[in-house]
Amino acid sequence: MTQLTDPRPMTGEPLPLDLLNTVWMVDGEPYDMLHDLAGLHIWSHANGLHVPLVERTRRHLVAARDAIRAVSSDRRDTTGREALNRVLAHGRVLSSGGPGGQVEHVIEADTESWEPGVLAAYGLVDLLERTPDRIRRCEHPTCVLWFLDTSRNGTRRWCSMERCGNRAKAKRHYDRQHGER
Ligand SMILES: [Zn+2]
Hints:
Elements: H1 15-20, E1 23-26, E2 29-32, H2 37-46, H3 55-73, H4 78-88, E3 91-97, E4 103-109, H5 115-130, E5 135-137, E6 146-148, H6 161-177
Helix pairs in contact: 3-4, 3-5
Bound molecules: zinc ion.
């Protein structure tokens, strides 16, 4: 298998947020890695998902991403919630008891092309249940990256200090020097 290089500035977030991070800013414009099947290949490979690398899969995944972004941005956004529910309706959770008394959950999609989007959507539901107030978008106004704040106090503000935290600090310093607030 050839080595795929993931060009994204941030990786390693939980699946639904990792999906949102397929869009990032390049020279002031949003760049969408899922604009073609090569990007789909890189993203699915990075997440250990074996998906049909066809246009239908890409379209369904982008639909799931739009819904996840809408709900993550505004929990009360009806359109976003309905879109997320439409994606969730393409999947189901199969629960079973394991030998040690534990319960195992497996998520299934109705078609292979929906599988990655469905997994991400159920992943978001899981985050919304467990850690809803830790789903964050980077606070830098021109950054579109997302992360799960796992800091002890829940005070993380930036995708990364190097990329956005320092930029914001520099801007505050500049504003102070120039008498703006
Ligand atoms: Zn950022």
